[in-house]
Description:
Oligomer: single chain
Radius of gyration: 17 Å
Strand content: 35-45%
Low-confidence stretches: 1-5, 105-113
Order of helices and strands: HEEEEE
Amino acid sequence: MSSAATMLPSATRPINPELSELLRKLQPGQPIRLIQTVRVGSRQWTTTIEGIFRELNYLATGLATDRVPADDIVVVAVHFKKDNGELSSVTLDEQSRIELLHERASSSGPSQG
């Protein structure tokens, strides 16, 4: 099949099929972990953030001048709430990963006592 079969509806850049499937199933309120590789020049490192999934949408990027449509890129944006209450968003690239976390220990099961 074509690569379009693994793409999210409005993404112009391919997303890993497993990640695409997870994104389609995410529901607001689910705890998630986002893992991304950051690269600046020859340096690179991994960053991880956890939060509560709020919504998924798309960010259109491109130049502010009238150019060919291929200059416009639409990326997937994941919106979530951090543990400290901060609302945050991350755009995904081909190396992004998301893990669905189980309910936080403080909110699940009886306390030991």
